[in-house]
Specification:
There is one protein chain. This protein has about 375 residues and is an alpha/beta fold. The protein folds into two domains: about 140 residues, Aspartate Aminotransferase, domain 1, CATH 3.90.1150.10; about 240 residues, Type I PLP-dependent aspartate aminotransferase-like (Major domain) (Aspartate Aminotransferase, domain 2). It contains 15 helices and 13 strands. Strands 2-8-7-6-5-3-4 form a seven-stranded mixed sheet, sandwiched between helices. Strands 9-10-13-12 form a four-stranded antiparallel sheet. It is globular and about 60 Å long.
Length: about 375
Amino acid sequence: MKSANSTMAGLGTTVFEVMSALAREHQSVNLGQGFPDDKGPEEVRAAAADYLLNGHNQYPPMMGIAELRQAVADHARRFQGLDIDWQSEVLVTSGATEALGDCLFGLIEPGDEVVLIEPLYDSYLPIVRRAGGVPKLVRLEPPTWRLPREELAAAFGPKTKLILFNTPMNPCSKVFDQEELAFISELCLKHDVYAVCDEVYEHIIFDDRRHVSLMTLPGMRDRTVRIGSAGKSFSLTGWKVGYITAAPELMKAIARTHQFMTFTTPPNLQWGAATGLRLEDRYFSSLAVDMQRKRDRLAGALATIGFDVLPSHGTYFVTTDFRPLGFNGTDEDFCRHITVEAGVTAVPVSAFYQSEAAPRHFARFCFCKHDSTLDSAIDRLAKYFAR
């Protein structure tokens, strides 16, 4: 038989599924895959449920229901000071991953170079390559994860089409500061490059930091694409509701891609997401405060156990160096070992790199869980490593 597409057929099973399956097999406390234990805000869930029973359950508009697109625009104005035209500059997608696909398939021509920053979310590279893009990888180094400016500048050239940029950054929990954002924007302007910004963790940010969208910087309004996620903002990851904000000329190509990907998203979930985006400011601030408390609960305990815990400035995750515990294998070995022997599952950070030269002594733990779940994991790890 003829072969399937080489880019997609050559991919392995995602690390999240591999580790979650191992966790189920060994009845481990799963701190690998990033989804909250919480049910999400009741008013958001109630709005979606009511719409399902009493609303319009046929095809909604391809761009998304007006109520959600208006809410996305209002939300951008409230938190970023952006003036967004909801009719021409907002698109609803079936999750942020579909949004990434729409943007990359819609904007990349075969042979275009795409600047990516490692460690990176595992869907980026397959989508870029399937779209015909040529990845140009720039690496952040632990523990500071500072932006390597010379290397980043060298990655831009005549063939660069866009930079795919994530802040707050999964997996390393970095939040890019104003100076780093300004440097990125200067490169985009100098080389006439687009920026596709994955901002799904925009409200999960810690220690009095503030999320700044690249779109707000001088000259970037018309060349930046913002991607948001109701799943992350409202702890409803199973809903798979995302949204894209972009200038009209960029949006045309992105929306035409979307119409042949999923075409639309369940209308009741869109209605619920619109309700969420209109919640008062205290909801979003309390989300960050609660996640920061969970971060501190887990990070402090891991440090006491003996892990070297790296700073976590946002997202659901904390990265640890396990070498102080005396384990000499790779991060994959370590994550399998603690799943089987200690009953706690983490994710190897090397899975977020392309190169074989990736660091192999870091494990990522997820803290967006109930306190009882975190305490169970802490207790198991403490008992195991105290032996």
